[in-house]
Amino acid sequence: MAEDDQERTERATDKKREEARKKGQVARSQEVLSALVLFGGMMTLYFMGAYIVHQMASYMKPALVQSTSLHLNQANVYGLLIKHLSNLLYMLIPLWLVVIMLGVAGNIMQVGVSFSSEVLSPKFERLDPIKGLKNIFSVRTLMEAAKSLLKVGFLAYASWWLIKKQIAEFPALTHLSVWDILVYTGKFSFRLFLVLGVVMVAIAVIDYAIQKYNFEKSIRMTKKEIRDEMKESEGDPQVKARIRSLQREMAKKRMMQEVPKADVVITNPTHFAIAIKYDPLSMAAPQVVAKGTELIAQKIKEIAKEHKVPVVENKPLAQTLYKTVEIGQFIPPNLFQAVAEVLAYVYKLKKKIPGNLGRQRVIPSPRPATY
């Protein structure tokens, strides 16, 4: 049993997942981001490529014309470089925005909106060179290296497969104009990236499934951890059981304190005991102030005899009252007549007949037995 408790075989609880999330431990695949960025960049160039090329051509023509009359020196070259690069980056802003948004969207798709300050906090144990060497040659590192090699291999094969199909057309490009060559190159590049994108999506799906499995495995819990967490969140079961036991004892004690105030105790005679109280001046109907079975029933009868409370045997009435009326409730109308007969008999014994009962013609049948 002790060994079973130490084996991490149980699925992680919500609390465990939340703690792992705060530490930055989530199921995330970098390949998903790569596939999204590749497809997003490709589609952006497909729909906006002509616009970007036109903008670049419109800018480069006057720039090249002006550069022929420009005196070149170190300062001028540096200024031209900064100017042209700035303009180039400005023209590529749509592409950068798409790539950034897809990168953020890829993370949200996998782990939702999450920020963990613990990931950013410095950990000095990472500076340990021995531990660093162990991480370099760990099984996880080797698996990541193998995965990268496989990915590169699949992408290289897909690229070669497409290039091999088009390689026969390359000699004919020498007869085309520069613009036609650029158009052909653009179309071929689009097909190449489309094939690579499909391969990347397949790799991303497989990699995410692997990352999800490894994550679920890493946060598994032992049976002892499950029990400890339940104790923390819901309280120790033994303590809760003790509290419930004390509550029952207190309720039982309060109930027993009401027995001496009762007018009659109706019994089964051995299995059930129901104490009934009735005050016609303040109560609309008789009230059950205590009830119980077996040992509790015996205790109710003992207290009743000790305080000279009449104990009356009526098996059907005792069973019905016990099953249908709770402690503190009034007798339902369908039992008024039966209870009234018992109370009338008790009051007759005591030579005390309240007004409401005295006006009724009570005929107990059969005659209740007293103890």
Description:
By secondary structure, this protein is mainly alpha-helical. It has helices at residues 2-6, 14-22, 30-68, 74-91, 93-111, 117-120, 129-136, 139-166, 178-218, 223-234, 237-258, 294-306, 315-324, 336-350, 355-358; strands at residues 264-267, 272-277, 287-293, 311-313, 369-370. Helix 3 (30-68) runs antiparallel to helix 9. The relative contact order is 0.09.
Helix fraction by DSSP (H/I, runs of at least 4):
55-70%
Distance between the termini: 56 Å
Give the strand content: 5-15%
| Strand arrangement across the biggest beta sheet | 3-2-1-4-5
Computed structural class: mainly alpha
Q: What is the radius of gyration computed over CA atoms, rounded to a whole number of angstroms?
A: 44 Å
Q: Categorize the overall geometry.
A: rod-shaped
> How many helices in DSSP terms?
15
Q: What's the arrangement of secondary structure elements?
A:
Layout: H1 2-6, H2 14-22, H3 30-68, H4 74-91, H5 93-111, H6 117-120, H7 129-136, H8 139-166, H9 178-218, H10 223-234, H11 237-258, E1 264-267, E2 272-277, E3 287-293, H12 294-306, E4 311-313, H13 315-324, H14 336-350, H15 355-358, E5 369-370
Parallel strand pairs: 1-4
Antiparallel strand pairs: 1-2, 2-3, 4-5
Helix pairs in contact: 3-5, 3-9, 8-9
Overview features:
5-stranded mixed sheet, 67% helix, 371 residues, mainly alpha, 15 helices, disordered C terminus, 6% strand
